[in-house]
Specification:
14 helices, globular
């Protein structure tokens, strides 16, 4: 094993993902939890996309940004979860070098895209609350499309150096990654050369990417809160603030574990490895799972449309049962309650 771990190679053909070292005995329970979160994320985000796509009244800037967020969540979770579950269920730990770098790119790129979308949504809330009469003229469909394109291009430009730098380093120590997926610092730390460039660039991207996004979001909400507190009545203030509450909850769910995970990898030398890996996976799973729930529950238009879909199906079933198929409906109802006859 020692020979396998320390063979001399510049670019290994494969990496070995260890999973979560120290928690092997709990893999079954962890996999059930992660798989459940993943299923909820997939179902919830596809539901958001379907509702916005089929409801013309939701074709507006806020919901376009919400669709972008749903697509980003789907890609972010799907880029890591299938491999993670294959490690837990089938002990399939190998990942090709190029596939590892591709996964690394997708994880960091779509994390950046999601952060940029939160800035765009904060801008939408700022215009809607602080300058409502000009909202439809400022955030037109072409402007929304340009904002979305700018968010994607910015994230791609910031993320491209990650895999290029990682490919440049020689890996002569080991090809075993103590992680469930190919995270940037987890990969480059295996290099046997000086990786200060990767480390400094990662801090630069974190500061000028996520850091600036947090700054712009903070400035937007400071202005929003100033306008809210100027409203004449308490009910008006609460109602206006309620339109922002879902966005604030989603922001907290995304940035808090993400920043802690990124900074602990560089400075948290006393943080247990298994805790860091669990937190990194929660960061990739929790926001995609919570975003559809938060926006579905807190956004009245989406909630009403979802209830309308279910009630419409129920009305269709009742109408069908009130016709010539009464006996069949009664038989189906009996099968549901009592079970089918032997």
């Amino acid at each position: 094993m020692s020979d396998f771990n320390k063979t001399d190679f510049t670019n290994p053909s494969t990496f070995i993902l260890l999973g979560i070292p120290g928690l092997e005995a709990a893999y079954v329970w962890i996999s059930i939890l992660f798989c459940t979160m993943y299923d909820i994320a997939i179902l919830g985000n596809f539901t958001i996309l379907f509702i916005v796509r089929t409801e013309p009244s939701l074709h507006g800037p806020m919901y376009y940004f919400l669709c972008m967020l749903a697509v980003s969540d789907l890609v972010l979770t799907t880029s890591t979860m299938p491999k993670l579950l294959s490690i837990f269920w089938f002990n399939s730990r190998e990942i090709e070098f190029s596939a590892c770098l591709t996964q690394l790119f997708f994880v960091h790129c779509f994390s950046g895209i999601e952060s940029g979308i939160f800035v765009a949504m904060a801008l939408d809330r700022y215009v809607a609350i602080c300058d409502p009469l000009r909202h439809s003229t400022i955030l037109t469909n072409p402007v929304v499309a340009k904002i979305g394109l700018a968010v994607v291009l910015r994230s791609v430009i910031f993320t491209l150096p990650y895999p290029f730098l990682a490919r440049r380093w020689p890996y002569c120590r080991t090809n075993i990654i103590p992680h469930t997926h190919c995270e940037h610092m987890a990969v480059v730390k295996l290099s046997c050369t000086n990786i200060h460039i990767s480390n400094y660039y990662g801090l630069f991207a974190l500061s000028f990417g996520i850091g600036l996004d947090l700054f712009f979001i903070s400035v937007s909400y400071i202005q929003i809160l100033r306008d809210i507190f100027r409203l004449p009545t308490k009910d008006a203030r609460l109602k206006t603030f309620g339109t922002c509450s879902s966005h604030l909850c989603a922001i907290l769910a995304f940035y808090i574990p993400g920043l802690f995970s990124s900074l602990s990898y560089r400075f948290g030398h006393n943080v247990p490895l298994h805790f860091h890996i669990l937190l990194a996976n929660v960061y990739l799973l929790l926001p995609p799972m919570l975003n559809p729930i938060i926006y579905g529950v807190r956004t009245k238009q989406i909630r009403d449309r979802l209830l309308q879909l279910f009630t419409h199906k129920e009305i269709q079933l009742l109408s069908w049962c009130s016709g010539s198929q009464t006996e069949l409906c009664a038989q189906l109802a009996g099968d549901i309650v009592l079970g089918p006859l032997p």
